[in-house]
């Protein structure tokens, strides 16, 4: 019954990957200054100025900054900010090219930036909305702190983000054009959607062995939908997940490795590193037997490799990571607060595609399961209204100005990004699709193993920003 844990974990791990440098880098050209956290007195409720304030965490890297340079502001979105985001990322690299200041501001209700609430029950999450978050960033830009650098009033602010944070960047430029000079949005889902079955379709396009995986999942479906409790229990034990009582928790768990492998794919950093997708598919290619039971047995082995490499080897660890019953409403819990945003504003529930589409996850990973999770965690919340969200935020249609969009050709989130729609007006902005790229690849620090297309994407961003900074 924990269908959304998969997507939260994918996003969280993607942010961790993007935050760290990779490849053969020349660290002598990097700054070696110490980055320390600061805390901004942020308004709790922007519609009630008497609501008080909370401490909103931020990092600043001034190593590249020269007076007159732009301010690159970013956020980690649905997870905690990190030093690496301002020091060892594609954002800090871009700032170094423009003599820019880099600031990362934590999103409310994530990391350390929780308003003073006793727990995460529904009644305490009323100010956890994207509108409040956008107002947070607007307040920060309008009244920037003087520590550790005094920012000139006429500075040009460039909002940068990847994934949900890329959505934030887009919406900040759109809603606050006088505050945000330009935006760089990487792999940004802009369309709110409840039944996001297209995610699996995109994963299948990037996976050479998608037929084999789909065959294994069909075998799993035949058992999960049979109603035979003994057979279902045996299947869970076969996968090393016998501790999971809820069938949906099990179904979500076995969907995890393929999704994260494609979304977080990056070429090997050295000859000794594993090239994940070819290695994974190679296990199926070695077997001439394509019976459902055989395909399932192969998939079991790849899944157990994932469990072992992720140190999910005990019942306690598996329960904590996959079981709905293990979700805590104690503060802090970024998983719960992301669920809340998904349940109330965005949807983004990665579900099993229905026939005739091919599915890479069991059929019980569906909208009903997502809605059950929302009702379980947040009793009494109003039903999700994605039409309202898209009306207020614009979805992936409309007019966009001075915003450069990047996305990966194999990014499963593409259908919800600007590249997933042709019903928009591109005004003074650009879109770049990275060939064979995955999720937020361009927000990594440049590496010697970067593809030509990824390198071109960063140049594309730089050229657009350079043109706008000179012209406006």
From TrEMBL:
Residues 1-19 form the signal peptide. The keyword Cytoplasm does not apply. Keywords: Glycoprotein, Hydrolase, Protease, Signal. GO terms for molecular function: dipeptidyl-peptidase activity; serine-type exopeptidase activity. Gene3D superfamilies: alpha/beta hydrolase, Serine carboxypeptidase S28, SKS domain. InterPro entries: AB_hydrolase_fold, Peptidase_S28, Ser_carbopepase_S28_SKS. One of its GO terms (biological process) is proteolysis. It comes from the Eukaryota. It holds the Pfam family Peptidase_S28. Belongs to the peptidase S28 family. This is 337_t:CDS:1. It comes from Acaulospora morrowiae.
């Amino acid at each position: 019954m924990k269908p959304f844990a998969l997507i939260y974990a994918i996003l969280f791990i993607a942010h961790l990957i993007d935050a760290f440098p990779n490849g053969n880098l020349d660290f002598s050209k990097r700054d070696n200054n110490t980055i320390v956290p600061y805390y901004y007195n942020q308004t709790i409720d922007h519609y009630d100025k008497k609501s008080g304030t909370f401490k909103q965490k931020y990092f600043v890297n001034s190593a590249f900054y020269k007076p007159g340079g732009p301010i690159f502001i970013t956020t980690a979105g649905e997870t905690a900010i990190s030093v690496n985001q301002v020091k060892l990322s594609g954002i800090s690299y871009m700032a170094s090219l423009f003599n820019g200041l880099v600031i990362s501001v934590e999103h409310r209700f994530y990391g350390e930036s929780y308003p003073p609430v006793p727990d995460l029950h529904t009644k305490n999450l009323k100010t956890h909305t994207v509108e409040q978050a956008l107002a947070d960033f607007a307040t920060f830009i309008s009244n920037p702190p003087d520590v550790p650098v005094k920012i000139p009033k006429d500075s040009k602010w460039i909002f940068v983000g990847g994934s949900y944070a890329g959505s934030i960047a887009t919406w900040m430029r759109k809603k606050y054009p006088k505050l945000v000079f330009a935006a760089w949005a990487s792999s940004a889902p802009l369309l709110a959607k409840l039944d996001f079955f297209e995610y699996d379709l995109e994963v299948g396009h990037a996976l050479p062995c998608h037929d084999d995986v789909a065959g294994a999942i069909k075998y799993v479906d035949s058992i999960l939908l049979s109603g035979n409790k003994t057979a279902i229990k045996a299947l869970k034990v076969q996968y090393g997940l016998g501790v999971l009582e809820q069938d949906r928790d099990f179904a979500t768990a076995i969907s995890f490795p393929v999704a994260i492998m494609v979304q977080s794919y990056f070429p090997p950093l050295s000859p000794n590193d594993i090239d994940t997708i070819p290695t994974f598919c190679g296990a199926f290619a070695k077997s001439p037997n394509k019976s459902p039971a055989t395909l399932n047995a192969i998939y079991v082995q790849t899944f157990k490799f994932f469990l072992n490499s992720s140190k999910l080897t005990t019942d306690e660890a598996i329960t904590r990571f996959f079981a709905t019953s293990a979700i805590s409403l104690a503060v802090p819990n970024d998983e719960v607060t992301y669920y809340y945003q998904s349940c109330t504003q965005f949807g983004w529930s990665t579900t099993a595609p229905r026939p005739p589409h091919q599915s890479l996850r069991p059929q019980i990973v569906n909208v009903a399961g997502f809605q059950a999770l929302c009702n379980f965690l947040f009793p009494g919340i109003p039903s999700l209204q994605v039409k309202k969200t898209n009306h207020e935020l614009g979805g992936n249609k409309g007019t966009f100005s001075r915003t450069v969009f990047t996305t990966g050709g194999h990014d499963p989130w593409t259908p919800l990004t600007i590249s997933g729609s042709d019903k928009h007006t591109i005004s003074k902005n650009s879109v770049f699709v990275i060939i064979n790229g995955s999720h937020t690849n361009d927000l990594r620090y440049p590496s010697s193993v970067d593809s030509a297309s990824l390198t071109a994407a960063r140049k594309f961003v730089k050229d657009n920003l350079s043109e706008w900074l000179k012209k406006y």
